[in-house]
Amino acid sequence: VQLVDAARGGDTRAIARLLTLVESGAAGLAQVSSALMPHVGNAHIVGITGAPGVGKSTTTSALTRALRDQGKTVAVLAVDPSSPFSGGALLGDRVRMQGHATDPGVFIRSMASRGHLGGLSAATPQALRVLDACGFDVVLLETVGVGQSEVEVIGQADTVLVLLAPGMGDGIQAAKAGILEIADVFVVNKADRDGAAATIRELRAMIALGTRAPTAWKPAIVSTVATKAEGIDDLLAVMDQHRDWASRSGDLEQRRLQRVVREIEALAIDRVRERLGGAEEHARAVLAGRIDPYRAAELLTYSL
Amino acid sequence: VQLVDAARGGDTRAIARLLTLVESGAAGLAQVSSALMPHVGNAHIVGITGAPGVGKSTTTSALTRALRDQGKTVAVLAVDPSSPFSGGALLGDRVRMQGHATDPGVFIRSMASRGHLGGLSAATPQALRVLDACGFDVVLLETVGVGQSEVEVIGQADTVLVLLAPGMGDGIQAAKAGILEIADVFVVNKADRDGAAATIRELRAMIALGTRAPTAWKPAIVSTVATKAEGIDDLLAVMDQHRDWASRSGDLEQRRLQRVVREIEALAIDRVRERLGGAEEHARAVLAGRIDPYRAAELLTYSL
């Protein structure tokens, strides 16, 4: 709790230590969490996702610079659900973000999943709460890759940016499969390359075909060349528009509510998991062909 | 249950329909599962994983051909936990496997995660049980990518092959981070390329540094050029050796037991999840800053 005070006072090392605590799932987290609660809810949490190679890190870096120019403080949380196997990509990101290393208004941290699946989905809301409570105006939540776990992570954001680049082959193809539902803003990065107009056309067609409610937010499309900071101001403006719309429409509140519902359900299930006993005995019966796994699961829940 | 009989009789469409049922998590699965139980436990389930580009599909195809030459029947289950966003890779795999399309001793199926995380980890054991009960001698379980969800999927195998290729940069680097624990056999594919010897040397050093118990299986290393079917017979021999060792040492039984424990725990948790009520009320209290998420989770479990 002293740590929370220090972190809120702007002590970078205290923030980093809190995040390590969160990442490791250490005991005492409930206490930390409780101390953070009065201070959360102010940061604009912006998710950034997209296939490898579309320029997520460069865009994150350009956004950070532009937000700093507006006088806003920025925290970057790069999350890699595909770890423990990779990690390299995140290291690369950190290096590319070095331009902000000496700026006290910028905090950068990467987080990888340690151990069990779901560990990261559990740690992310806590980590965002730390950064939010520490007073950052904007938290950029960057995920590596676009798999199912990434969708869970990015679902923690108030505004979701999905990055695409022309000529990435199955960019739009991939998008069709599931990105439409989570994107608030499509960012066509590397827009100075051949095929950018086609990508935008396909996106428009896809959005037109979407089945969102008429009152829902219509995903915006912004073209950028992140390496030259082109289009970044437009992107910031659209991000603000979405945030304003979400506040006014009640979408933000609804999204945050659903987020907390998922979070506490997951925590509750962790508690239940610890109480499940006798699984091995039932598993032996399954292996012997005496019962099927569904029946075994039923028997197992009786132990609760 | 009629479907189970038809599938066991070798009706390919019945097998496909059973797998669709499993994938969709449809009701009535318990009944299907129960009908399968007496017939499972005979197939050798071989997991094949590795980073994109190491030649998983080619190796799977070459293994299939070699196993067919030995008179064994083969089912290939290609699983992509990173869907709903991709899917393209799997389609490519299917096309490459077309050489086996007319062989009734080969069954090929790809499976993607539909909807919630964990759906695929839940569906995979059921799908393997279907293929096992249908009498395939070997089931090749191929995963796309090497993330955390892939590790969960590949953990369903009796024998795990981890594929590497020379000159993939961080191949070994990645391996260090977590592959060592799950690999029974390292396959250095594209072994005719520069750097193969170095890759093997690094693998040997890594295995020597490992902390496995002296009685445990020491991961084997096999060099292959899957496109020319070179080394595939060696690989088959090592796969058989591992299977024999696992049977004799009790490792196979232990692995299968742990697998079923995880499966029925997951099913039990699904049942519990449905019974968790009132999450939204507690979530509102969290958003209002009145309680922290841990306390909310505690309150939620009281409802069970």
Verbal overview:
Two copies of one chain form a homodimer. Chain A is built from 13 helices and seven strands. Chain A has 304 residues and is of the alpha/beta class. In chain A, strands 3-2-4-1-5-6-7 form a seven-stranded parallel beta sheet, with helices on both faces. Chain A is globular and about 65 Å long. The two termini of chain A are 34 Å apart. Residues 83-92 of chain A have low confidence and may be disordered.
Q: Strand-residue fraction of chain A?
A: 5-15%
Strands of the widest sheet of chain A, in order across it, are 3-2-4-1-5-6-7
Largest interface: A-B, 71 and 73 residues
Shape of chain A: globular
Overall number of strands of chain A: 7
Largest sheet of chain A: 7 strands, parallel
Terminal Cα span of chain A: 34 Å
The tally of helices of chain A reads: 13
Low-confidence stretches of chain A are 83-92
Q: What percentage of residues of chain A falls in helices of 4 or more residues?
A: 40-55%
The structure class of chain A reads alpha/beta
User: Mean pLDDT across all residues of chain A, rounded?
Assistant: 83
Give the topology string of chain A: H per helix, E per strand: HHHEHEHEHEHEHEHEHHHH
Instruction: Give the quaternary arrangement of the chains.
Output: homodimer
